[in-house]
Specification:
Length: 476
């Protein structure tokens, strides 16, 4: 893509951007981009003050024909908190058209990403502290309360409404249900107490299972609030609509798996197992600690076959060919294991920060699982078909993204204030091209899923008059 003839308009746009940034030597824009909102090169979507910073995890949303962007001014401090990304309070939320038109302020002091409910897709909601509020898209009114404490810990949206929990004592929870109310605007019915006191619970779209201190696991229907006993003598449990996995509180600590439709139940293992050691996901029941290398049992829910993962292995996921990706530590080496035979094949000996997919593994070399987002390392792709490992970039951070054509966009040279350059890398040539800088943040950490087209990225520049949020579109 980078060898195509230079468009004179693109060259002019790059020169204008360079002059605006007072750049010298290396230009501010060194990469070919497509037209966006009538301009070539990065397009400034929103002006921000130099002390404003996009909030982490979901600063940019799109609803209909407008973007909603939230930025804060004052760093939030949390004692004894390990900073993996900075967060800010005293926020301002802006609404702008898809090309930056009609800029307006619609809210202050929102504490998390905006979202909508399927029942009211045109009504943006947000958290203001622990309260759920509706945002006036015109900016003429302040956000209105929808549900008090509707953003408290443990909030869960289900088909019928919203589940909330309250801590009422050490190891005890109160579970509340708010049913969706009728009407054209988001609203909920008064709370219904599902469980007055429960040790743990699982909420599904149409039911809540709660485990009491008496060891009785009860089911409450969210349709008619009918109560049934699901099991007795329960120590811990995991559930889906189809299966129940639970450990008995008897001396043998048997672990049982029940098909909830047929009511057939079988002993599949024995404890002791922690509450976090029972899981039902991706077609398997899993018995064993998910945060340790102590070994694990995998029960294939399609046929009931039990497979043992030995100690010293971390079972990650089933891959496209039916084998399982496992690791010998939490950052490699990486192997593929045949569950039937127990035979393992080395995929890669590289230690690093992983992302895994059905057909491949991607590793930022030399970094641990809790990699600081300011760090970077060589990015490698390891396919599970046995083809050679491929370097995708000499340096990439954990917030990198891959464009549809395979190019990698990543911040690099990020300093202590989380500011660096944004570059795009062609994996065929490993040619690294600078998009812009100094960049504080970009799509890899900020844009809500599907807020932007796949070939379009957003990022924030901190640079005097240039400070703001930019969009850039890459040619396919």
């Amino acid at each position: 893509m980078f060898t195509r003839p230079v468009d004179p308009r693109a060259l002019r746009a790059a020169l204008v951007a360079c002059l605006a940034a007072s750049c010298g030597g290396e230009t501010a824009i060194e990469v070919t981009t497509d037209e966006l909102c009538g301009e070539l090169g990065p397009f400034k979507l929103l002006d921000l003050d130099e002390d404003e910073r996009l909030i982490p995890n979901g600063a940019l949303n799109r609803f209909g024909d407008a973007y909603y962007i939230t930025a804060g001014r004052e760093p939030r401090t949390a004692p004894d908190h390990v900073e993996v990304w900075p967060s800010y309070e005293h926020t301002t939320t802006y609404r702008v058209g898809l090309c930056g038109e009609d800029r307006r302020i619609v809210a202050h002091d929102l504490t998390a990403s905006l979202f909508t409910l399927e029942r009211w897709p045109a009504a943006p909601l947000a958290c203001q502290g622990e309260d759920l509020v509706a945002v006036d898209v015109t900016g003429e009114a302040t956000p209105t309360l929808v549900l008090a404490r509707g953003c408290s810990s443990g909030r869960q949206i289900v088909d019928e409404g919203m589940i909330l929990r309250e801590e009422i004592g050490e190891g005890e929870l109160r579970v509340l249900f708010h049913r969706f109310a009728d009407g054209s605007e988001p609203s909920f019915s008064p709370s219904i107490e599902v469980f007055a006191a429960t040790r743990s619970y699982h909420a599904g779209d149409e039911e809540v299972l709660g485990l009491g201190d008496d060891g009785v696991l009860r089911r409450v229907s969210l349709v008619d609030m009918a109560i049934d006993v699901e099991a007795e003598g329960v120590a811990h449990f995991a559930a889906t609509p189809e299966y129940l996995l639970w450990m008995s509180d008897a001396d043998d600590q048997a672990v049982l798996l029940r098909d909830r439709e047929s009511d057939i139940e079988a002993v599949v293992g024995h404890g002791p197992i922690s509450p976090w050691g029972l899981r039902l996901d991706d077609g398997f029941a899993r018995i064993g600690r998910p945060d340790a290398l102590d070994g694990e049992l995998l029960i294939d829910l399609s046929d009931g076959t039990i497979h043992a993962i030995p100690p010293g292995r971390w079972a990650i996921r089933e891959v496209d060919d039916g084998r399982w990706l496992v690791a010998a530590s939490f950052n490699g080496p990486w192997l593929l294991r045949d569950l039937e035979s127990g035979v393992e094949a080395l995929v890669s000996a590289r230690a690093g920060y992983p992302r895994w997919f059905g057909d491949r593994l991607e590793i930022i070399e030399g970094s641990a699982l809790d990699l600081d987002a300011r760090e970077s390392g060589a990015l490698w792709r390891v396919r599970f078909d046995g083809s050679p490992e491929q370097m995708l970039a000499h340096r990439a951070s954990p917030t990198h993204v891959t464009l549809p054509g395979g190019r990698v966009v990543t911040p690099v040279a990020v300093d202590a204030d989380w500011i660096g350059d944004l570059v795009v890398v062609d994996p065929e040539t490993l040619d690294e091209r600078r998009i812009d800088g100094p960049v504080f943040d970009f799509t890899g950490n900020q844009a809500v899923h599907d807020a932007l087209d796949p070939d379009t990225l957003a990022y924030q520049v901190i640079d005097g008059a240039r400070t703001g949020v930019y969009l850039v579109r890459f040619p396919g």
